[in-house]
Each structure stands twice: as structure tokens, then as C-alpha cells.
Amino acid sequence: MIVMIHGLALSGRYFTPLARSLAAAGRTVLVPDLPGNVRSRRAGRPAPDVAESLEALLRWQAAAAIGSCVLVANSVGCQVTTALAAEHPRLVERMVLIGPAPDATALSPVRQLLRLLTDVPKEPLSLLAVTAADYLVTGAARFVAGFHHARQDAAGPFLARLRRIKAPTLVLRGSDDRVAPQPWAKEVTAHLPHGRLAEVPSGAHAVHFSRPAATARHILQFLS
Questions:
Q1: Euclidean distance between CA atoms 72 and 129, whole angstroms
Q2: What are 86-97's pLDDT values in tens digits?
Q3: 11-15 contacts, C-beta under 8 A, 24 or more apart
Q4: Measured between alpha carbons, how far is 203 from 207 in angstroms, rounded to an integer?
Q5: β-strands 92-98, 69-74: how paired?
Q6: Which of 22, 36, 51, 68 could cross-link to 27 by cystine, CB 3.0-4.6 Å?
Q7: What integer pLDDT is reported at residue 39 of this predicted model?
Q8: Whole-model pTM above 0.85?
Q9: Could you give the CA distance from residue 171 to residue 194 in angstroms, rounded to a whole number?
Q10: pLDDT more than 70, % of the chain
């Protein structure tokens, strides 16, 4: 069983190309939407932080009767999956972190925004249409609140959490990813007791969308 966790202010729709590639290889794939994002947002309540998102994910796993699984996450979603792997190791068989973000060495909002803007031209137009629609539904207030929570987590808890993870973990990035640059990906991998790093050529931050077949090959090789 593979469970995919999306990034900030997004739905799981942008995982569809990768999910199809993995399903074609015989894998069962589930893609939940976390509270506070797109149509799963909680009206009148603030965007959840990492701990609250983790609790929501745990409730969903229990309701769906999902035991130990493979977690595949992108960007800020990596913060939630690493929290699950650190706090509840028996629920995580293996983990794949695609473009983990934000970079703890560059937490300035201005630097993060500039990185995101320089990544945009390298993404396909079809992805930009999906993400723009999701951002509009989530709303600016929830995006800003979620970004604040992500920066707080990256400032300390995230790296410390990595050292407690027992599950074998693949850190995967597109070679053109400006949001999660190679030095940061290497640092994340170095903190993991059982981590390895791989790159997909010509992929950007959402490499699972732009290069789903190549991304699936890396994941399937890792799982085998």
C-alpha cells in the first residue's frame, strides 16, 4: 500500500500521473487530502500545523484500516510524513521524500518566494493550471498560515526528527528543483539513519507530475 501526501495548500490531484504509473505496476495507491487544503479545508478554523495534520492523517489511516504502508510525500508534505515515521514507526514500512521543503538553510520568506518563482518556468503548464486552481480554493489566508507552520517546523523540529526515523527513506528530487536544491537534499539525506538520495534528470520541484514514469522507476526500484 502506498499513501501519497501533497504539499502546501494543494490537493492530491497533482499526484495523479505518478499514482497511475505506480498502479500500472500493480501497486495500490491512496491519495488523501489533508485538512486545511483545497476542498478539505475546515471552515472558520485556522490552517492546521504539522502536529494537527499528523493527527488527521492518523485518524484517516485508522478509519481506512491501513496498517504499515509506504509513504510518498512532496514538499511541505514531507514534514507530515516524517512526523508520522518518527512518532509511529510501526505504521511506516518505507518512505519517499520528493523535494522536501522548505529548506532550513534559507527560511527567509523572500528567498523562499524567489525560489518558487524561479521554479515555475521549469514546470509544465498543465501543472500550473492545477496548482493555481487549488491555491484559489485554499485561499491566501490558509496558504500564509500553512507557510508559517512549515517555516517553524523547518527551523528545528524537522532535522531533529529525521535522526529518529527507522524506516528506509529515499530522498528524491528533480535535477532542476530550485525549491529543494541539491545541498539541502544532501543534508536531509545525511540526517536519515537509512537514507539515500536520487535525482530525476530535467525534473523540477513537482518531478512526480512532470516526470512520472522516471519517478515511478526510482520508487519501484527502492521498494524492491
A1: 23
A2: 999 999 999 999
A3: 11/37, 11/38, 11/39, 11/40, 11/134, 13/130, 13/134, 14/127, 14/130, 14/131, 14/134, 14/206, 14/208, 14/209, 15/72, 15/74, 15/208, 15/209
A4: 5
A5: parallel
A6: 22
A7: 73
A8: yes
A9: 11
A10: 98
Cα→Cα distances 211→122, 127, 175, 216, 217, Å: 12, 12, 11, 9, 10
Alpha carbon distance 27, 20 (integer Å) = 9
Close Cβ partners of 141 (under 8 Å, ≥ 6 residues apart): 47
Angle between helix 140-154 and helix 125-138 axes, rounded to 10 deg: 100
How far apart are alpha carbons 183 and 189 in whole angstroms?
A: 10
Count CB-CB contacts under 10 A for residue 221. Answer: 10
Q: Mark 174-188 as b/e (b = at least 16 C-beta within 10 Å).
A: bebbbbbeeebbebb
pLDDT winner (highest mean) among 110-114, 119-123, 184-188: 184-188
pLDDT digits (tens, 9 = 90+) for 129-149: 999 999 998 888 889 999 999
Closest CA to 99 of 117, 116, 121: 116
E strand or H helix at 72: strand 69-74
Structural domains of the chain ordered from first start: 2-223 (3.40.50.1820)
